Structure of RRM domain-containing protein:
Amino acid sequence: MVYTFRVKKTKSAKNSMEGLGIPQDLSGSTSNGDSIVSDSSSESEISDRVESSTLISRADQRKNRKVKKERLLRTVFVGNLPASMTPKSLHKLFVHALKSAAIQPTDCKVESVRLRGAVPVTGGTSRQARKRSSIQHDFAAGDSHTQIGFVVFTSPVGVPAALKMNGYFLPKGGSGDGNHIRVDVCSRQKASYNTRNSIFIGNLPFSANEEQVRQVFAPFGKITSVRLVRDSATGAVKGIGFVEFEDASSVPLAIRRGAIKSDDSNNQQGLVVGGRQLRVEAWKSIKKAKDPAKRREKSQNTRGISSGSGRVNSIRVPTNLRGRQARKKFVKQALQKRNKRKQMEVTDGSTKVLKKRKTAATGVARNPRKKIKKATR
């Protein structure tokens, strides 16, 4: 069986021929300039060549995934870098960290560094616009802009030494201002921050930065890291953030102080950043807070129903009940059962004693909550 392929003389055609294993010396030419390739190989041989090329590509994909996973284990994330930071300065910073940890260059070196998080003044989101903004240090937020970086080592031995740089203070020139950098692992399999030692911050001004938040919460204990959620398009703070303390005892102190509202008459001062009163709560996940399904379920479960006595009693309504009439019927039955139980309870001081009724026939005390099956003859 002879197969004939009619293709144009292009570079892509040449590559496709080589990928199928078709030798170029079998190709000919016609009068109209097209090339004719004839192969007298059997159909099974051609299919074997295609399958072998597919298997090689899949093997390469598995190999690339393994290489990326291994590279991720020796990569660290660096946050809250100043706008003036350059790749060369970042490289020198972590070379000094390896030397401070007494790690020899033969054991581990800095393989590469890269900076990200640039927001151009023009507002462009293309890769070239971000790269140009990073090189020229022309950011939309000006000097208050912060960058993020990634440092890759030649060996995982350098990762613990790099993590010791978490909270390191980078001064700006000769002034006392600067940034406390945040260093974390890049592996997504585990979270390096402790949620029990963290608090959630709300009502932050859009122009706030990590250093302002750190100064406000520093009196409550040693701070491990400060994370502010920023908009990827503008670089501005979205109004929320997280603060992680070294000790869990600092969390209730910060929450208690955040509950105090600023009042000039009583000389009470709450937690204020940029003229705005902060909202401080225990750590909570952003995804859970934004989930509309869970909000809907919570509102249905905690729906208040009036019992006619002036109080509002909370009744859990199942979410699988369809229709308003079905929900009303369920609430009515639940209220009847609740009122019946209350009638059988008598309050005696701080304890509740359940009245036991006696039957007229036997005189045996029984619990009214338990249903007694009727005797069948």
